[in-house]
Amino acid sequence: MHMKNIQFAVFNFATFISISAVNSQLIPFLNESGYTPAQKGWVLGFSALASLLFAAVIGWISDKTGKMKPMFIITTLLFMAAVFASFILTSDLWIKAICVILMFGIVKEVMSINETWVFQLKPKTFGKYHCFSAAGLVSGSLAAGFIYKQFNSIGLCILCLSASAISLLCGFFIKEKEAAEKGSISLASMKKLLMNKSYQRLLMILFLLMITGFADQFVVVDKLIALGGDRIAVSVKFAIQSLMEIPIYLFSAKLFKKFEPSRLLLVAALMTGVKFVAYGFCATPLWVLIVAALQLFTHPIIVLTSKLLIQEVTPKQLAASAQIVGFAIYFGISGFLTPVIGAWLVERFDFNITCWIFACIAIIPTWMIIKMRKSKGNQPA
């Protein structure tokens, strides 16, 4: 493998180790810190709003300057500071809540910038490089579960900081895209982007699918713990799901040659509904882990198709903004609503009914994708 390719592989692998370490252990960490389900929902919700604010600023600056590297470096340094503050610096619940909000908000932007930057530099081989991201998620999830159990939050902090330092080093030596366009971004152009009906419809579809994605990350993890699963079981769930994503990323080029992105997105939406119906029937931790393997047909397809479909409906000079701001809207707002709604539904009903309600939510984007495909088919050539 060429040296530059190795650099990209390590960059993705290390970045996603730190992301998965936070994502996989955040719920157990908040539970053990003493937060109530309602407080936990609000902490997770406000972290999504923080992510939305960061994304708006990052997307605008990236397109204005034509550079992604400075934003990645600054965001990663902020993430490392927030990780240290959350896991080590304070034990006060309110101060810790603020630190966790910043940490979990920034980690979404680290992921968004990584994916957008690699997609811009390596659009044809993005899927293959994302295999290393998935491998990082698998490794990070399993390592985080073991380290947290043996060394508590201090060990988890060291894991996150070490992986982030490696990704920061790799990112520092990655060159910017030579033909990056800059200087043409204005509030008017951003408004035009947000008023684009095709863009709006796509973001609504992705927003609804991400609601179920966050429910998998929060509600299903809480159900797994309620059924008797421990930190290791939570880590195994994240590892299984990350492992299932690798084949899709590995064969993405062949997949997209054979099928349209919108058709694949339709499959992902249908399988999302199926997955949550199955989650509702799970009565043991083992069955939750088995159903989690359906990730093969959902999240990786949504990640890849979202990049391609957003690229199709936006102008080149707004390439970074369209991806980062779009990501913040469908990822950030859904990330705010899902923990709050999920916590209320679980208290009002139970885990099983809540899972079936999220399965019903998946029907809406499925219908919208079918309509989108029909409208595309009716357009004149």
TrEMBL record:
<keyword id="KW-1133">Transmembrane helix</keyword>
<feature type="transmembrane region" description="Helical">
    <location>
        <begin position="322"/>
        <end position="345"/>
    </location>
</feature>
<dbReference type="GO" id="GO:0015528">
    <property type="term" value="F:lactose:proton symporter activity"/>
</dbReference>
<feature type="transmembrane region" description="Helical">
    <location>
        <begin position="202"/>
        <end position="220"/>
    </location>
</feature>
<feature type="transmembrane region" description="Helical">
    <location>
        <begin position="351"/>
        <end position="370"/>
    </location>
</feature>
<feature type="transmembrane region" description="Helical">
    <location>
        <begin position="287"/>
        <end position="310"/>
    </location>
</feature>
<keyword id="KW-0997">Cell inner membrane</keyword>
<feature type="transmembrane region" description="Helical">
    <location>
        <begin position="40"/>
        <end position="60"/>
    </location>
</feature>
<dbReference type="InterPro" id="IPR024989">
    <property type="entry name" value="MFS_assoc_dom"/>
</dbReference>
<feature type="transmembrane region" description="Helical">
    <location>
        <begin position="95"/>
        <end position="117"/>
    </location>
</feature>
<keyword id="KW-0472">Membrane</keyword>
<dbReference type="Pfam" id="PF12832">
    <property type="entry name" value="MFS_1_like"/>
</dbReference>
<feature type="transmembrane region" description="Helical">
    <location>
        <begin position="72"/>
        <end position="89"/>
    </location>
</feature>
<feature type="transmembrane region" description="Helical">
    <location>
        <begin position="129"/>
        <end position="147"/>
    </location>
</feature>
<feature type="transmembrane region" description="Helical">
    <location>
        <begin position="232"/>
        <end position="252"/>
    </location>
</feature>
<keyword id="KW-0813">Transport</keyword>
<feature type="domain" description="Major facilitator superfamily associated">
    <location>
        <begin position="8"/>
        <end position="345"/>
    </location>
</feature>
<keyword id="KW-1003">Cell membrane</keyword>
<protein>
    <submittedName>
        <fullName>MFS1 family protein</fullName>
    </submittedName>
</protein>
<dbReference type="GO" id="GO:0005886">
    <property type="term" value="C:plasma membrane"/>
</dbReference>
<dbReference type="InterPro" id="IPR036259">
    <property type="entry name" value="MFS_trans_sf"/>
</dbReference>
<feature type="transmembrane region" description="Helical">
    <location>
        <begin position="153"/>
        <end position="174"/>
    </location>
</feature>
<keyword id="KW-0812">Transmembrane</keyword>
<dbReference type="GO" id="GO:0030395">
    <property type="term" value="F:lactose binding"/>
</dbReference>
